[in-house]
Amino acid sequence: xxxxxxxxxxxxALEVLKGIDLTVAKGEVLTVIGGSxxxxxxxxxxxxxxxxxxxxxxxxxxxxxxxxxxNLNQLRRKIGIVFxxxxxxxxxxxxxxxxxxQRKVLGRPKAEAEAEAVRQLNHVGLGDKLTVxxxxxxxxxxxxxxxxxxxxxxxxYMLFDEVTSALDPQLVGEVLDTLRLLASExxxxxxxxxxxxxxxxxxxxxxxFHQGVMAEIAxxxxxxxxPESPDLRKFLAATH
Length: 240
Ligand SMILES: Nc1ncnc2c1ncn2[C@@H]1O[C@H](COP(=O)(O)OP(=O)(O)O)[C@@H](O)[C@H]1O
Ligand SMILES: [Mg+2]
Fold this sequence. Notes:
By secondary structure, the protein is an alpha/beta fold. It has a domain at 82-155. Helix content is 38%, strand content 25%. The protein has nine helices and ten strands. The strands form two sheets. A six-stranded mixed sheet has the order 6-7-8-3-9-10, sandwiched between helices. It has a four-stranded antiparallel sheet with strand order 2-1-4-5, covered by helices on one side. α3 (94-104) crosses α4 and α4 (110-123) packs across α5. The protein is globular. Bound molecules: adenosine-5'-diphosphate and magnesium ion. The site of magnesium ion (MG) has 4 residues, from α1.
């Protein structure tokens, strides 16, 4: 479970998260929508401890992310994160890319890391690309490799930050299908996305961020059919 309690975060004079309260249950799929600069990415980077927070707290399985005593490296193994663009190592094959962090961070023996990489690459539909170099993959395939790489670390939670935003439109579907698959398998996920149809289909709940505030959170049918705040209505009207 991820528990976010009254989290505030500023960059200089700019308050980017203005007291966020949110709990994500095990197995839940939460999507986060909202305009550019509303604090969505910052929330994700705070959850896995990449960014410090100013006040409040974030607990992952009861462990306080920003407590001094917390071993962040250990905690981050629970939390996979995939960004808009993934910089694979160009001189390593797809298989080697997916093995690398398992070897370096988890210290997995080579055979075990390889077996897990093969398993996860098959999982995301890249079982036929093991020996290919990343430059030979399409953008959608590269994002699926990034997802396989994160999954190979055996995370309990997955955070996705606009993983389809940099893709050509015809490649978006294959990546969303991979996210759908993970959701159907019970992965606990927070997905920041601009894909409203996807958010509607896959989410247990959708959170709307506006200027650093979680202005609305509800199951998708409710949030999309009966938005309460004028800001959300405006946002939805602009995205259709
Ligand atoms: N490292 C940083 N330093 C300074 N300002 C930042 C930094 N990261 C984000 N911001 C600012 O914080 C605000 C929220 O950013 P972000 O969380 O990336 O929004 P979103 O992902 O919703 O577009 C933006 O105004 C952005 O410019
Ligand atoms: Mg962002």
